[in-house]
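Action item from last meeting closed. Structure (615 res):
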């Protein structure tokens, strides 16, 4: 990160600072350009002994950077699992295949390396489906490997029959919108081609999801080590003339930077561009921390859990354009709000050409297909020397002081977030995740991160359970504690507490316990419905944690929150903080319910008689 320079009150650099900044900008650009390729050159494997296909495949995966494999074993995938267990790859036997998939997703995103998920045939493979869709949506690098029925037994009523073009599960072995690459490895000789495709896919900067079926006979077949010869070049960069044109266009008038998750590895360059140009920065929820959230040029978050000051700035300052970096601007990132669209439209940079015009088809867009870091390097190099940072209206950041704990009543979610900020975000370099539901909007709105890669939320597919199980993957990949802020509904739906206890993984769950599906209930009330079937019995998550070999503490008063989080930080293994929260305090959902109404949700519904809530 560049050093913090002296700035004028509007956040721009004084003239005396600009010359010294030039050398710093050049060093940042040079450092990014000098990053070597992450894939191994030449032959990935140097061994010469004959071995099973399983052993050869695991050896190749190790060379490709795989460090973790999660899954649920079975007879149809046993030889491959044994090969993994005898390799440097850490094998974690999960309690459900979807939990294994979520853990692999978060391990991949936390480490930047590919992760593996294993499952047996039949329901083992079908249980992977949600995780496959989530991995594709999140831009993770995940290889799913499942058992497959041998060709000679297909169509004969084999137990949990899987694989082949006539199987009911054939879509899981077909490349397309769900999977970048898929198929059944029918012969040992196909392994070289497969590993070459995996090497090429894992080199993609924007994620790669594959599924390979392995019949038992192929897993145990003998062959030499895999010897792929594929060397993948860097991600595409735009032509130099495009960078010059974009620099001249953006420098000619005020603009804002709209940073997305795709810019997370280019945070220094985003900050450098903002400081060079004076452009303000707003971030999607997944991009929190790409611009330090205490930086004077940072505006806030857009979408679910977003900040009103973003729209206030755009309305008052009237910037000409937005430089959109690495985001599709989907519903949870923008609500497709016209208030977020500058009068001159977007300069949109992304590796995925499908992102251009998808969320705002009516908005004028200059589309640049390029890797974000490469584009920003070229843009900074082409930035006009005579351009001056623009001074314009800056909305005040009216962050309220941390509220004092109240003496009675359950814990307010906003108070809980303020203590999480103080005791976790500011005390540890740990990943903090929020689950689909009210936790999503609470974390995005109240928490503030100084750097990228520490806040995780799923704004696209948004599966409940991704954080409750994925927190294990984040913890093992970073070798540190990871924290998941989750609802009680999600915790009941999916968790891997037992797995974390078995392996001593430092996962911490902070459970928002209100004995209901809180986001659904509040959403119903907001649009004028009488809530129905949203309540369920109050759950003791500490008792559940202890029954599974973990530990925890229940919190019912605000004065006890800090102490409970200190215990969670100091715990040696998995830990649950079960917080009884105030059911009446609304989460900052922003325009989520208005977005549903625009999509056709009726605001008129006959009242429903509710059964008494069970405690």
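Sequence:
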């Amino acid at each position: 990160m560049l050093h913090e320079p002296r700035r004028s009150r509007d956040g721009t650099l004084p003239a005396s600072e600009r010359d010294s900044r030039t050398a710093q900008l050049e060093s940042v650009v040079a450092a990014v350009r000098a990053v070597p390729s992450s894939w191994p050159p030449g032959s990935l494997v140097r061994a010469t002994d004959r071995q099973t296909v399983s052993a050869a495949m695991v050896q190749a995966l190790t060379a490709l950077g795989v460090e973790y494999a999660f899954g649920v074993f079975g007879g149809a995938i046993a030889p491959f699992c044994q090969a993994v267990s005898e390799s440097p790859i850490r094998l974690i036997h999960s309690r459900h295949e979807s939990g294994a998939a979520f853990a692999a997703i978060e391990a991949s995103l936390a480490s930047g390396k590919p992760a593996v998920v294993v499952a047996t045939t039949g329901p083992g493979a079908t249980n992977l489906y949600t995780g496959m869709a989530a991995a594709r949506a999140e831009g993770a690098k995940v290889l799913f490997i499942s058992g497959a029925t041998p060709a000679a037994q297909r169509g004969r009523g084999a137990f949990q029959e899987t694989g082949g073009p006539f199987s009911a599960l054939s879509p899981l072995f077909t490349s397309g919108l769900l999977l970048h690459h898929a198929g059944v490895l029918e012969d040992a000789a196909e392994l070289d081609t497969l590993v070459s495709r995996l090497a090429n896919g894992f080199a993609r900067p924007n994620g790669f999801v594959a599924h390979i079926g392995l019949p038992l006979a192929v897993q145990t077949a003998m062959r030499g080590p895999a010897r792929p010869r594929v060397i993948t070049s860097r991600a595409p960069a735009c032509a130099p003339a495009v960078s010059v044109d974009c620099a001249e266009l953006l420098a000619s008038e005020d603009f804002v930077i709209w940073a997305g998750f795709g810019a997370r590895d280019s945070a220094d360059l985003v900050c450098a561009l903002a400081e060079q140009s004076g452009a303000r920065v707003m971030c999607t929820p997944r991009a929190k921390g790409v611009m330090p959230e205490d930086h004077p040029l940072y505006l806030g978050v857009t979408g679910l859990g977003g900040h009103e000051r973003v729209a206030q700035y755009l309305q008052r300052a009237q910037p000409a354009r937005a430089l959109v970096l690495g985001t599709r601007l989907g519903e949870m990132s923008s609500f497709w709000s016209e208030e977020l669209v500058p009068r001159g439209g977007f300069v949109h940079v992304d590796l995925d050409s499908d992102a251009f015009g998808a969320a705002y088809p009516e908005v004028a867009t200059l589309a640049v297909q390029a890797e974000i870091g490469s584009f920003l390097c070229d843009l900074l190099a082409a930035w006009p020397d005579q351009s001056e940072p623009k001074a314009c209206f800056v909305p005040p950041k009216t962050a309220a002081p941390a509220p004092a704990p109240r003496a009675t009543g359950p814990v307010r979610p906003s108070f809980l977030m303020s203590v999480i900020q103080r005791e976790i975000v500011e005390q540890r370099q740990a990943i903090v995740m929020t689950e689909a539901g009210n936790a999503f909007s609470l974390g995005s709105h109240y928490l503030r991160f100084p750097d990228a890669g520490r806040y995780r939320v799923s704004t696209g597919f948004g599966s409940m359970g991704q954080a409750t199980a994925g927190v294990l993957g984040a913890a093992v990949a970073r070798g540190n504690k990871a924290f998941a802020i989750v609802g009680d509904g999600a915790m009941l739906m999916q968790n891997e507490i037992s797995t974390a206890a078995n392996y001593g993984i430092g996962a911490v769950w902070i459970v928002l316990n209100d004995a209901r599906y809180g986001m659904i209930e509040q959403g119903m009330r907001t649009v004028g419905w009488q809530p129905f079937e949203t309540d369920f019995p109050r759950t003791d998550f500490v008792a559940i944690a202890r029954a599974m070999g973990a530990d925890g503490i229940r919190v019912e008063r605000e004065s006890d929150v800090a102490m409970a989080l200190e215990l969670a930080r100091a715990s040696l293994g998995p830990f649950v903080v079960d917080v009884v929260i105030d059911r009446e305090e609304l989460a900052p959902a922003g325009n989520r319910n208005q977005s549903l109404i625009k999509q056709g949700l009726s605001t008129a519904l006959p009242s429903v008689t509710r059964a008494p809530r069970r405690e």
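Note appended to the action item: The longest helix spans residues 15-33.
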